[in-house]
Amino acid sequence: MNTESNIIQYALNDPLTGSYFYFTNDLMSDLKNSLSNPSANRIIWNRGTGQFKFYCDEKTVILKENTFCTLTALNYINFPSNEQKVTAIVFNREFYCIRDHDHEVSCNGILFYGAQNFSVLKIPSNEVVPFEKLVDLFEKEFEEADSLHGEMLVSLLKILIIRLTRIGRNHIVGIQSDYQSIETIRKFNLLVEQNFRKCKQISEYAFMLNISSKKLSELFRYAKLDPPLQIIHQRTILEAKRMLLFTLKSVNEISEELGFEDSSHFSKLFKKITGKSPTAFRIRKN
């Protein structure tokens, strides 16, 4: 823990269990620790009045005042120099597994592992004070460090995730009060994350959700979200971009790994969505 210049940084790292948790109220002051665990999920909160810009999976992300971003270990992130102070909470699966405990927080498909793989959420003005108090509880807990310390941090993290999930649900316009429909959308997003390599058709996901393809498409239209097929394609091409940028695999190897029987079908879809062929995309970025 470091309190110099009002900077608070704290890490819980258990070599026996592999459990890792990191908290900082000034992310840019210690990126090394914040990014040191490659298997960690991250919650970033801009608590200041200025903007905080960074890059995630080839996209520019701008966090305005009192805006959160949730990231998984799958995301490739780059933080350029920025003097804006932001709070970051980093945790790995051994500390708290959001997949195994989805029944507790119901955040997957909304906060984490959605079709876009990261969420940006604006905190309503009437929610800012409760969130600030929650951060105060985190900081207070760092001073305790007794035998219940780890459990308390997990409890606080769960509260934070639940509150963010509620905000995320309200961001699904058109059906904010229809919790059953929101749950269907959430499950669809998670199913896409789990199956996009082998399942490319809406009908396959509709079958897993036990609804018709037509009803699934209508639900996304009412919610003013991208069509389900577009979400499936976007997730597939996002993975293709990652593999083109961060591996040495050939286009044919990537096509096969992503479940395409013919690499020409993969290249056609990639160009349709990105405007470039896979080879041209790789050359441009390198």
Question: How would the blueprint of this fold be written?
Answer:
Layout: E1 9-14, E2 19-24, H1 31-34, E3 41-46, E4 52-56, E5 59-63, E6 67-71, E7 77-78, E8 86-91, H2 102-105, E9 119-122, H3 128-142, H4 149-170, H5 179-195, H6 202-209, H7 213-222, H8 228-246, H9 251-257, H10 263-274, H11 278-285
Antiparallel strand pairs: 1-2, 2-8, 3-6, 3-8, 4-5, 4-7, 6-9
Description:
With 286 residues, this protein is of the alpha+beta class. It starts with 8 loop residues before the first strand and ends with a helix. A six-stranded antiparallel β-sheet has the order 1-2-8-3-6-9, with helices on one face. It is globular. It has two domains: 167 residues, Regulatory protein AraC (Jelly Rolls), CATH 2.60.120.280; 107 residues, Homeodomain-like (Arc Repressor Mutant, subunit A). A hairpin with a 4-residue loop joins strand 1 and strand 2. Helix 3 runs antiparallel to helix 4, helix 5 runs parallel beside helix 8 and helix 8 crosses helix 10. The protein is built from eleven helices and nine strands. The mean pLDDT is 87. Keywords: DNA-binding, Transcription, Transcription regulation. This is Helix-turn-helix domain-containing protein.
Summarize this entry quickly:
This protein has two domains: 4-170, Jelly Rolls (Sandwich), CATH 2.60.120; 179-285, Homeodomain-like (Arc Repressor Mutant, subunit A, Orthogonal Bundle).
Kindly report the average pLDDT value.
87
**What is the total number of structural domains?**
2
Strand content: 15-25%
Q: What percent of residues adopt helix (DSSP H or I)?
A: 40-55%
